[in-house]
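Appendix B. Chain record.
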Amino acid sequence: MLPVAILAGGLATRLHPITKTIPKALVPVAGRPFIQWQLEYLRDQGVSRVVLCTGYRSTQIKQIVGDGSQLGIVVEYSDDGTTLLGTGGALSKALPLLGLEFFVLYGDSFLPVSFSMVEQAYHDSDLPALMTVYRNEGQLGTSNVVFSNGQVLEYSKIRQGQDMTYIDFGLGVLSKSVVEHYCQEKVFDLANVYEALANARQLAGFEVFERFYEIGSPDGLAQTEEFLRSKVSL
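Structure tokens predicted for this chain:
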């Protein structure tokens, strides 16, 4: 299984006052820090190595997670330092730890999907990158993807159109060469890379049929709490 980069460096201002003293990765969800849910889920999927791209209050995350041995997974760190680099800049800085191909997901997302199926779809596509997509039609935020026949034809956080019925599910697969090619600035958003890849017809798509969960907003946090508590009670 490919290594996983988790983008966990943001300020999480929408979750204030909770995140005034802790990073979003450590927000309590269903009885434990959210990052523990993520790492245990990845371990159970067969992932053996994770690179945490940290920034805001990164020391607190390291104190809780350590090297991952208590959770049965290898965890390494790539820290933004004194200047937050954005999702793209953080990923670019982490490249030396990630190898030639890797998964990338956001530090506030819990994604019910088969990582092995996503990895296989990436290899089968013969394209340098893949985005998972969900047929959203405006339900879970603003739809931002045009998807057809296994390919993302357009992705934009700015343009909205009736043809955009899908949304970025939150899990991608990228090759190192793609990130190096599109990462010309030190501070930038991963969304810019995805948009350029889609425009160049270099972004494969994998459709997921179960919704994603996120803790980036109070409503999302409440829904994720309910979902993860239901998993505990099963």
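Further analysis of this model is presented in Appendix C.
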